[in-house]
């Protein structure tokens, strides 16, 4: 039986970190050491490794809090190049730190347009920890990336034997293994008894594609997130606009509302040509296009979390999309 050919692109993060003390699940990020993609694969039992023909593609060893949009553009380019030059690939697995994993997965899903499964995976515990979850997550990701039924579903996130759609998932816990969740719609599938099972299709997939004309070192518009709270005076919003923000994501109080002072600052931003998107800081639920937002020229984020909404708005601005087109993307459930 021919083994599935899977490329593993390693980008660092907890899954590729180790500490001197196997009890350390906290300080490793600052004082630990990095592992390469080959080390990650070597942590799997030989019988598991024998199931796949794995090709390692090194990318970076930086922590996920160091990731940026230019780096994710570079990562998307590496994925596209691998698929173009290695047509026998059955799937791609990207190892990534969990702190910004939901943003990375959303970005890749919005930019890439490939039939081959692309799976993003991370870990909550370093490779050196007691009961490290990295090897199990990596094995599950390899299974999903090699599953024919995973093709055409866009970018997927695999963790704790669950399969999530890239634009629905969020990190919900700081240290618990069951951290990646899709609060509104749930996972799209699971890995059970070494089998890949999909329970539903995503009813939608927002897609923007690679912004025309963007290359390495190209300009990326500034888009900032403003977190609302009782008594907020809008100073932060005005500071972001003064710093050159072309877009603002307002992470409002549920169900997507701001203080009067913040509303005044947002209206000023809209008057200056800044695209404003009203999101919610809540764990689940969406922001709908209610009458007040429409009258003020503010977009509604729908079910996108603030950090993912920032990714979408940035890419939309890069393509020159008009607000109506942006709103149509946010309106997808």
Automatic annotation (TrEMBL):
Pfam families membership: Asparaginase, Asparaginase_C
Among the GO molecular function terms of this UniProt record, one is: asparaginase activity
**Residue ranges of domain L-asparaginase N-terminal in the record:** 6-199
InterPro entries linked to this entry: AsnASE_II, Asp/glu_Ase-like_sf, Asparaginase/glutaminase-like, Asparaginase/glutaminase_AS1, Asparaginase_C, L-asparaginase_C, L-asparaginase_N, L-asparaginase_N_sf
Q: Which GO terms describe its biological process?
A: asparagine metabolic process
Asparaginase/glutaminase C-terminal domain sequence ranges: 222-330
The record's Gene3D superfamilies line, in alphabetical order, gives:
3.40.50.40, L-asparaginase, N-terminal domain
SUPFAM superfamilies hit by this protein? Glutaminase/Asparaginase
Keyword line: Hydrolase
- Signal peptide boundaries: none
- Top-level taxon of origin: Bacteria
Q: Which family does it belong to?
A: Belongs to the asparaginase 1 family.
Query: What's the protein here called?
Result: Asparaginase
Organism name: Komagataeibacter rhaeticus
């Amino acid at each position: 039986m021919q083994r599935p050919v899977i490329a593993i692109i390693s980008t660092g993060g907890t899954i590729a970190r180790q500490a001197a003390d196997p009890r350390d699940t906290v300080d490793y990020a600052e004082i630990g050491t990095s592992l390469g993609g080959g080390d990650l694969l070597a942590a799997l039992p030989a019988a598991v490794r024998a199931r796949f023909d794995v090709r390692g593609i090194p990318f970076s060893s930086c922590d996920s809090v160091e990731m940026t949009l230019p780096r994710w553009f570079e990562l998307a380019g590496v994925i596209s190049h691998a698929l173009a030059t290695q047509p026998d690939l059955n799937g791609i697995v990207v190892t990534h730190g969990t702190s910004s994993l939901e943003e990375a997965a959303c970005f890749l899903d919005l930019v890439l347009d490939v039939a081959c499964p692309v799976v993003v995976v991370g870990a909550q515990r370093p490779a050196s920890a007691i009961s490290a979850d990295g090897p199990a997550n990596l094995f599950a990701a390899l299974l999903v990336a090699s599953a024919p039924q995973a093709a055409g579903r866009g970018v997927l996130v695999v963790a704790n034997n669950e399969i999530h759609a890239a634009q629905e998932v969020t990190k919900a816990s700081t240290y618990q293994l069951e951290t990646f969740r899709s609060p509104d719609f749930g996972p799209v599938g699971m890995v059970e008894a070494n089998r890949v099972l999909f329970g539903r299709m995503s009813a939608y997939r927002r897609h923007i594609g690679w912004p025309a004309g963007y290359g390495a070192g190209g300009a990326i518009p500034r888009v900032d997130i403003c977190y609302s709270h009782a008594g907020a005076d809008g100073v932060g919003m005005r500071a972001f606009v003064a710093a050159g923000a072309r877009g603002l994501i307002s992470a409002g109080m549920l169900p997507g509302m701001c203080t009067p002072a913040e509303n005044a600052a947002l209206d000023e931003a809209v008057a200056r040509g800044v695209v404003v998107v009203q999101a919610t800081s809540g764990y689940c639920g969406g922001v709908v296009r209610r009458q007040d937002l429409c009258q003020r020229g503010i977009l509604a984020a729908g079910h996108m979390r603030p950090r993912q909404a920032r990714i979408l708005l940035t890419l939309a601005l890069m393509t020159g999309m008009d607000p109506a087109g942006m709103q149509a993307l946010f309106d997808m459930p």
